[in-house]
Universal stress protein UspA-like protein
Amino acid sequence: MLETVLLAVGPGDSDRSGLLAEAALEVANPADATVVLAHVFTSSEYDDVLDRLDFDPTVNEIDPDEVAARHATIHDIRDVLENHDVDYEIRGAVGEHGPSIVELAESASADRVIVGGRRRSPTGKAIFGSTAQEVMLSAPCPVTFVRSDGFEE
């Protein structure tokens, strides 16, 4: 039985937030699991988000959980989970996407990880790597990959 499902989102997931929410409902709702909504930011993405969401620049340390909670993709998925009475918590992290998702899965004692992505050409994978592939190979639990229809070079 699943107790904790980590649903990891990033900057490219706004177009598939509905698909990610559906995937979380499929595995969490029947099992009454808690969904950990996690948004991972690289350092530069984090700085951009702090500016865009009007966080006070004079504050030395801003909690990544608070930043994640204010992100639109997290809001969209949170609303779906609330409408289906699914328990959730929100976590944010700053670092490289793949390793940070794996670390969040480990710290949350996740029984399942859900990540999104696009189909990629072999060249695209070789040049840019694949966050989803890294998570699938390194996560401490099974991983569900939610693919959008777009193809990314």
Notes: DSSP finds seven helices and five strands in the chain. Residues 5 and 35 are 5 Å apart (CA to CA). The longest strand covers residues 143-152.
